[in-house]
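Example for tutorial group B:
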């Protein structure tokens, strides 16, 4: 019986597994090999140099600067994005008027292309014609910041755009999880004297913990990338103050024709994402609650 079952399953698995190996696993293996070479992207045979690219990376100030900028995003984005999304999700599941309108409004930035979002906010942040500085001048701030031209401000300006664009997605994710919780749990807690804060902290959070774990991993992976929004708004400037690992590997590989070194940065970024995902999965692991 089991043999007949596997005879039926294996022919269907072979094409999909073969495509996965060819389109996913093989490029990963090839990238790891290229990271050990010196290659300009034109010659047929890259020159094998071992770990030289990784040794250079450890001494590269631009690499550490980009990694530090990614670390800032890793701290800022999960706290504010998920915090705001949780707040909106909880409020909009409490039967407030026009809740469907607010859900669509908050989710709308998510359906926009990230490149379009970057271009839009580049105009919003413009120091002379931007609407943000114009509003700040109206309320009496005579010298508003040059949002995308000040090294001390640019990371936070990009973070604000990213939070604005991403909150809607995580809000919808949390709303779906919250609306699946039986109302009887809340009624029982209210009978015991729980207020809204107690309901949120002691009922809602434990029952959507698996969704929160997924959301944290997603936003962390996004924070280690940040290529599209950074490349669109600043291209890593000013003076590399907003450069992240993804934009740095792009400039090294495609603009500097250092594909070996760029690929080494890409492999390092992959390992960082893998490490963060494994650590977060273990730290946030807890017994699943069934309801």
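The residue assignment follows.
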């Amino acid at each position: 019986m089991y043999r007949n079952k596997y005879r039926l399953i294996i022919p269907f698995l072979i094409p999909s597994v073969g495509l996965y190996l060819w389109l996913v696993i093989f490029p990963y293996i090839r990238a790891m090999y290229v990271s050990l070479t010196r290659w300009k992207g034109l010659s047929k045979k890259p020159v094998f140099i071992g770990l030289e690219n990784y040794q250079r990376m450890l001494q590269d100030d631009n690499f550490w600067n980009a990694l530090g900028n990614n670390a800032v995003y890793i701290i800022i984005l999960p706290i504010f994005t998920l915090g705001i999304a949780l707040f909106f999700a909880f409020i909009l599941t409490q039967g407030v008027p026009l809740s469907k309108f607010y859900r669509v409004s908050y989710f709308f930035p998510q359906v926009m292309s990230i490149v379009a979002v970057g271009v839009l906010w580049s105009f919003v942040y413009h120091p002379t014609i931007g609407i943000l500085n114009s509003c700040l001048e109206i309320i009496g701030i005579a010298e508003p910041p040059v949002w995308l031209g000040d090294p001390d401000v640019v990371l936070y300006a990009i973070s604000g755009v990213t939070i604005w664009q991403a909150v809607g997605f995580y809000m919808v994710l949390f709303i779906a999880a919250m609306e699946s919780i039986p109302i009887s749990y809340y009624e029982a807690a209210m009978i015991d004297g729980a207020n809204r804060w107690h309901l949120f902290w002691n009922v809602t959070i434990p029952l959507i913990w698996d969704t929160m774990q997924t959301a944290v991993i997603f936003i962390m992976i996004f924070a280690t990338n940040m290529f599209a929004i950074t490349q669109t708004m600043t291209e890593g400037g000013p003076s590399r103050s907003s450069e992240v690992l993804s934009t740095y590997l792009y400039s090294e590989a495609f603009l500097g024709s250092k594909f070996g070194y760029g690929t080494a940065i890409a492999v390092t970024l992959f390992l960082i994402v893998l490490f963060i995902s494994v650590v977060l999965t273990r730290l946030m692991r807890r017994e699943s609650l069934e309801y």
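The beta strands are 37-38, 47-48. Compare this with the pattern of hydrophobic and polar residues in the output above.
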